[in-house]
Structure formats: C-alpha cells, structure tokens
Amino acid sequence: MSKKTKTEFIIEELKSVNNPNSIHGIYPYRGKISALDAEQILKQMPKGSVVLDPFCGSGTIVYEGLKYSLKTIGTDLNPIAILLSNGKINIPESLSEAQSEISKIITKAKKLTEFSKMKTSASKHFHGETSEEISRIATYFESMSDYVKACFLGSICLTARGCNHYLWTSSTVGKDITPKRYINFYEKLEQKIKKHFYPIKNSSKIYNQDARKLSNVIKPNSVDFVFTSPPYFDCLDYTAYYAKIIYDILNVDRETIREGLIQNFKEYEKDMTLVLEELYKVCKKGAKVIFVVGDKKIHGKLINGGEFFNGISPFKNVTFLERTYSGTSSQIFDKINNTKRKEQIVIWEK
Ligand SMILES: C[S@@+](CC[C@H](N)C(=O)[O-])C[C@H]1O[C@@H](n2cnc3c(N)ncnc32)[C@H](O)[C@@H]1O
Question: pTM above the 0.85 mark?
Fold first, then answer.
C-alpha cells in the first residue's frame, strides 16, 4: 500500500452537508449519506484504489468515488438501491441523448390505448390524471436506459409529493391530503432528466447482493478500502417511505425485500457480525474500513455506534472520529426527541 493510505483521514466539520446541484437529488433515498461528507474521505484515497460500499443504497459513495478515479463497488439487497446506483453511474454521454429517449417514450405513452393501471395502494397518492400518466410511462420501464429509469423513479416521488400539495415532509410521506392536485408527470420527468444530468466515467460495479454473503461476488483479498453507512441499528425500514409506492408501481413484492434486509433489531448484532467477517475476507492486508455510524437511543438507552461496532469487529487498530451532526434531518429528530447525538466515523485496519 502506498504511504498515503497509512495516514489518518482528516474530516472537517462542514457548514452545510447539502449540495442541491448534484446527481444525488435524483431520488429521496432513505438514510442517504451526504455526498459532500463522502467526498471529503474519498478524495484522500489514492487513485485507482478499490473501494467497496457493502450497503451502497442510492450509490452516493459509488458515484462520488468515481470523481477521484477510484474503482468503486457497491452492493445492496434493495432493488431500488440497485436501480438508482446504476442510474447514477451509467449516464448517457449527452443530455440530448437522454432527452430524445424520454421524448420518444412520452410520445408513445400518450398514444397507448391499453396499459396496466396502477394498484389502488399506489394510485391513492396521486391525482387520477397524474396516476394514469405514470402508468402509461411505466409500460416502457424495462426498455429504459439506467439513467432514465432512475429519473422515472425520482419523478414518481416528486409528483406524489406534488399531488399532495408538496406538504409531505420526511416524516409524513404517504399522508392523505385531499383533494389531490394535478401534476403533469411528463413535464416533471423531462425536468428531472435535465436537472440531474452529471455524467461520469464509469468504472464501478454494482451487485444486488446480501452483504452477509459478500464473498459470493467479491474476490478475497481484493479490496483496498471499505467505506459505508450501514443500516441503522434502530432499524429504519428501507422498504417504507416512498419505496412502498415504487414497489407497487413496479410490481415488486415489498415483504420479500423487507425480510431480506438487515432491519430487525433482535438480529442486528448477529447480522452485522456476519457482514464484518465477510468484509475481513474480501479486504487486502493493510486495507482500511470506514463505517459512518452514530449514537442511537434504543428502548430509552443511548448506544454509542462506534463502541458497538468495535465490539463485534474482527478488524484491529481502531480510530474513532467523532463530531456533532450538522445540517442534517437527524438534527430535526434530535430536537423532537430531545436527544443530542454524535456521529462517529470508525476506521479499522486489516
Ligand atoms: C444507510 S443506508 C445506505 C445509504 C447510502 N449510503 C446512500 O447514500 O444512499 C443502508 C442500506 O443498507 C441496505 N441493506 C440492508 N440490509 C442489507 C443486506 N443484508 N445486504 C445489503 N444491503 C443491505 C439497505 O437497503 C440500505 O440501502
């Protein structure tokens, strides 16, 4: 390993962790890591390093790593995560290519005389006309390019919010606000394609894979860095929120996805121990493993994320970096729950 990897990572407090002008606003993925935060760490890694995010979610780390010529690999068990990650890294070379693709789809969709209607569990969130427009476009989902697929999913969330007068907040998604407002889905989709168009040279690999069985797809001793924000141990449901609507539209069985994900508090310690063992197998000697975790209040008891993970980790030489949250939705929850949490960045070495 080069000398650079031996040095400790420097992490600075950021005034704001949001960058509205980026690709990451494509979809409101639950538990998305701040791209600016991720970038701080990724830019300190030597070019060409293999960086694995075993819980890649919407692909923030995978995409940001590409900016610094890293070979990023992402795995996740949620199909929405895979669609979004692929959408971010497989972007057409020119905006006009993506625009022409969607305009052809919209023209065909408008002319359809027969198409599958949306399930009522999903259509209830939309104005009737908006829901019909989504169903027409959904007919062509399988044939869409990865970037257009991701924009389609993001536009569904945006129009669902719009049909509910933009009153949904991160904690009230799904709230029934009537009467529903009409939002032109075609226009929203076209706008999204333009707004989030930040192409990048792709050298990433994305796998729809259970992190407890990582070594099925990743070679032993092949990874230089692991960098991830793992599923939270207060068991945030990654299949809830906007995802519920998307599963219904794509005809994906939500329960099957939910059962596979690590979000059962009782099993959490056992599951994460398995993941860490798998990470140990796939890491090279000298590899660094970086987990972004946080304090969590479980059944009234505050658990320090850093200490918890270090207690079950096979990796040695731990370093903890701790800081208070800044500019994230967690701050809002802290205000509501009257808690004061800190975020820990845990770094181990193999
Ligand atoms: C905190 S989120 C990661 C968010 C990501 N950093 C982003 O920016 O979008 C944790 C992820 O772990 C995934 N996950 C949960 N259980 C998993 C498992 N057994 N294998 C792989 N991924 C899993 C969830 O689907 C979720 O996407």
Answer: yes
